[in-house]
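Notes from hallway chat w/ T.B., transcribed later so I don't forget. T.B. wanted the structure written out for a chain they're using in a teaching module, and asked if we could keep both sequence and structure tokens in one place. Agreed to drop them here.
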Amino acid sequence: MAEEASSFLKRRFNLPNLREGVYILRTLPFWEKCLFLFFLVIFFISSVLLGWQANNRFLVVVPERGGLLEEGIIGAPRFINPLISISDAERDLSELVYSGLMRTDNSGGLITDLAEKYDVSPDGLVYTFTLKPNLVWQDGERVTTDDIVFTIQRAKDPQIKSTKRASWEGVGIEKVNDLTIKFNIKNPYSPFLENTTLGILPKHIWQNIPSEQMLYSEFNTRPIGSGPYKIDTITKDPSGNVSSYDLSPNDQFALGKPYLKKITLKFYLSEKDAVDAYKRGNISSIGGISPAMIDSVFPGCANGTQCESGSNKTKVINLPRIFAVFFNQNKSKVLLQKEVRQALLTATDKNKLVQEVLKGYGETLNHPIPQGTLGALGLEPENFSADDAKKILIKNGWKLNQNGVFEKELSKKEKLTLEFSVSTSGESEELKSIATLIKKMWEQAGAKVELKFFETGDLQKAITERNYDSLLFGESIGRDPDPFVFWHSSQKNYPGSNVAMYANAKVDKLLEDARKTLNQDERIAKYKQFQQEVEKDTPAVFLFSPSFIYILPSNIQGADNIESVAVPAERFSQIYKWYTQTNKVWRIFAK
């Protein structure tokens, strides 16, 4: 066939054969040979360039499966279970192993995960979810709405004492069929969808384990979920403590098989141990590092910047968490005086706290909702001055005594001294440093301040009993804020989280209305009014909102899209999109 085609071309176009072509070239003059070779080279180069351009036009770079991540985590997991996870290590693994109906998108929003779609009734009282078809657990069993009903029933079970219980109290559950489920709520609650990010447990595994035995189940350390990764191997040290977990991709993950071939999480007793392991090359990533340690990993890296050195980089992520000194006016009579609270606010140099303690990795805070969160007020500059604080007190009848501490006569029989305590965690070096700086600032303004540092259990007891004059404490506001639990008067007593013991009828009404409205603009307006009211009353000195500092290998792609997380574990929410290797394919074959 090839010979016939060649013969046809020769007859049709009178083309010379190879022998004739060589003969013709030999008979050409030298300058014509050079000219012919020149055009032949030009033709060859042009053909190559045209082919290269055409190839680039129709080829695209796509992620390819492979690569690994070795990350150091501070603390060790005991409960890899979304209902009872407490520590960062436990939440990190729960985020990797489990899926919810919805999943965070790392940009402040939510996407469907196990759910294919959802609908909200016009009155905001009924949420209907439809599952994706053919969902399976990591052991091959089918995922159905029975698993969702079971998980939420367990979350509401008082015997389990789940951290998610409050989110599901009063929520009715109705199974329509194996793929459809309805949630009925008594009153409209605008942040309700946040609840549906809860990781779902497999009923076929947990149903035979009584609630009172849930804490002791082996499935808390060898979990089976439907998330992006599954547990492969668990390594223990000579003492029997878990030292690392190896995870592999879940081929049946609802949002597609992840790209990273392997994830290894290694656990360390302290941040220093994790940083030392990083320096030795035992890990290439650290799941959150304190600003105080950043210089030892990336010398000269500070002021809130993202840095890159060698094969690693830092990722600075917005964390909607606030730190403040909350005044307990029910316990401290001196803090009941509004001018005292205003003077303490005026004496607090928040920028100094952010720069000296957080090394610039955070933002100063003037209100109970941080910047970048729904309903946040603009960050107006504040003037901090010990002299101005003194003027506020003097104007309201306070006088300095011989010890340099302000006093005020309420009556002939009663005198107040500007003396109180600040309680906080003694296990956090950052909080201890912040408390020490605040004490110095306030004493320069004429106060006498005692610092009380507590271990975690003792601090929780003090908070439960509201046994403190003031409390230096952090609150996680969440992606879709609901300040009700922190500021409504009904939450003053435990298990409520109104640690300032704050009561204001106007604020109560604003918070009640804000959580019911489904109109986003109305909700934002109410949150702004709420913050303006709080600002007038000064029930706390709001200090800062910290950043989450994440150390990653430079070759990890896909993680740069993380803008904000409600809790550190959410950095793994989109990990199924992370990759280290790429390939080029024709555009029509790219996903």
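Follow-up for T.B.: The longest strand covers residues 540-553. Might be a good example for the class.
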